[in-house]
## 1
Amino acid sequence: MSDRIDADFTGVESTMLITLYLRALETRSAEPVLNDPYAADLVDRIDVDFARLLPRGASGNRYTVAVRGRRFDDWAADFLARHPDAVVLHLGCGLDSRAFRLGPPPGVRWYDVDLPDVIALRDRLYPQRPEGYTALGASAAQPDWLAEIPADRPVLVVAEGLLMYLGEPDIRRLLGAVADRFPSGELLFDGFAPWVVGLTQRLAPLLDRRGLPHYTTATADGGVITRWDPRYRRLAAVPILDGLTRVSERGPRATYQALNAIPGFRNFYRLCRFAF
Ligand SMILES: C[S@@+](CC[C@H](N)C(=O)[O-])C[C@H]1O[C@@H](n2cnc3c(N)ncnc32)[C@H](O)[C@@H]1O
């Protein structure tokens, strides 16, 4: 009998298995951009046919997930070096090991937040509980749980692979609740252009058959965040292609360079950093 742990998810929760698998694949490549040994270990401990879960031809997305993870790790480390007593809200954390990869300063209070079933699985896979670390099963769309989080210090909100699955009212509610509660902070998120969101909506029947969700909201033009809540100002909105055109593997790099040269394509997906 296998002692691997079951992870029977569909819909938006299942997407965290795909990103985990992509990080594991990338970590096993010759020159990893991210290097996430936790992901490589977890895919061996979870009883899921990861290769089947991944849509055909999508293994190239390992570069995207790695470039995104690296960029967010660097921005987060920079914030924590300036605010070693910060609160971190890692929303839609899935099975990501960021808290363990970064090893935040001891004064940081780190909250890994995801939907309750995901956190229940996370608790089984990551039994370690470093000081200052909490895993919270709650929705980012109903942020009443923020009332339990210490609010006397700056906050870093990391929403990686999350906002595209939330509705606009949910994102507005979240932005408002965070900026109301904390004195200052930064928000890191990734966002797609409206045409990409529209494309996934047209592909919804196909995605549905695979138990996968389509995207709901476009935020690649980080400007919408400031329109929705003027307290947020943009620090950066970096096209993912900036990192992808530098990956070491020659074939994928040439593809990304060609895509980067197509007008209108460069900003299809951006990594954004905001402050309030
Ligand atoms: C694409 S995965 C990204 C997971 C992780 N950030 C990563 O990069 O591996 C999206 C995650 O968002 C979570 N999620 C979706 N809606 C959510 C909500 N309303 N509140 C909290 N988490 C949510 C899903 O359960 C899933 O773990």
Note: The chain has one domain: 81-275.
## 2
Amino acid sequence: MTASRTVRADVLVVGGGMAGAMAALSARAAGCEVALVRRAPGATALSSGAVGVAPDLSALPGDPLSWRRGPVESARRLARQRPGHPYAAVGEGLVLLPDALDFAVRALDPLLAPMLERPRFLATPTGEVVAAATCQRAAEPGDLLAVAGPLAVAGLRGHLGFDAALVADGLGRHAGRGGPEVRELEVDLPGLDPWARPHELARALEPPGEAERLGERLRAALANGARGAAAVLLPPVLGLSPAARVPERVAAAAGVPVAETLSDVPSVPGLRLQAALEARLARAGVTVLAGELRAAGGAPGDRVEVGEAAILAGSWVLATGRFLGGGLVRHGALAERAMGLPVEAAEGRDAGVHLSGRPATSLTVRDRRAPQPLLSAGLRVDPSLRPLDGRGRPVHPRLFAAGALVGGHEHASDGSGLGVAILTGWLAGRAAAARG
Ligand SMILES: Cc1cc2nc3c(=O)[nH]c(=O)nc-3n(C[C@H](O)[C@H](O)[C@H](O)COP(=O)(O)OP(=O)(O)OC[C@H]3O[C@@H](n4cnc5c(N)ncnc54)[C@H](O)[C@@H]3O)c2cc1C
């Protein structure tokens, strides 16, 4: 296709998830013209509503929740214990983690709750408790250490996607560890479509009167079955747009703070986060282009075509994600898709890790909390986040990588997904913006 326009920028960011958005916004904050190319939503749009930075690896299951180390201290420990982790790879850059997190919270205001010294303890839809660095404001009043009295878990009668009894049972197990006493109740919401998908329910609560109707029903249910509840946990469908203020409106009508649990997929909080990133990029004046960058053999400074635009930029940040985002592909061999860069997995380093001849059971580890060699594959980088070639040298002085594309971490086992995306995105954007 012949380009119908040319976009000139200082920095080209490839990828529109958390890492790409942070890179674009930090380069923009440093005064650069920034173009961002993205193909589609990736893992960020599936995330649960929690911002995982690092778990306290030394925490024991029975310990009081208040003993958990804070996310920044846990990230330092993670870097020491896992030398291949991006928190270790960035070296001194890890000191800037609090600044990067603060930048993200402010950039996305009012979506995210402010950071605390301690983790927030948040319920999943299966009643597990996740310790996260922060979360969306819609989940904040459900932080188990912040609930000042009994917590009610409310299901919507006929809504098949949320089992309040399961959640209440799981959370109740933490009552002796500093968590609240937990009760379960059901709210009757006439007209609720039992087959409605989460985003449809979330949208249905946004128009005037709808959140209030849920709040009034909740108030009645509380009076019958959970008098004295200090907060209520609801399914993760409290509006798609933070501007609709669904949690606040439900709470005002119910007379008690309400929160949503974290989500599994499809995730309303994930969609909310993705929408907030895109709105912020537009407000910041980043030129966002839809399309896929294919630049095998190319390098920063080259003219590349994406859709109908040609882009010229002196620095590039690759933030193309992993398997869900499309940064890595596996067709027998594991490969980096946009530029054909070398991929590293725990099996070793190769220009394409060849997996086709190996039994599937050798690629993953049965313990789901253990590091998974296949799932933590990605690029190896230097402390400036420049991808390295097979000999350990930067591929190009003005090429940077960020987010899930950087190897050595995996959210399901180390809980650092969005934390890595925020820190490496923010650092890569600054590095790409620096002249010379
Ligand atoms: C189901 C699920 C739930 C999760 N929940 C959480 C959670 O609750 N908390 C947490 O901290 N972490 C969570 N994680 C991990 C976290 O979501 C990811 O680590 C993080 O979102 C990665 O962000 P990213 O920007 O690097 O990649 P992505 O969000 O995957 O973005 C990649 C982007 O690159 C684009 N792209 C790819 N190739 C190209 C190309 N060639 N040209 C143009 N664009 C391209 C994609 O279209 C996409 O826009 C979860 C992950 C999953 C899968």
Note: The chain has eleven helices and 19 strands.
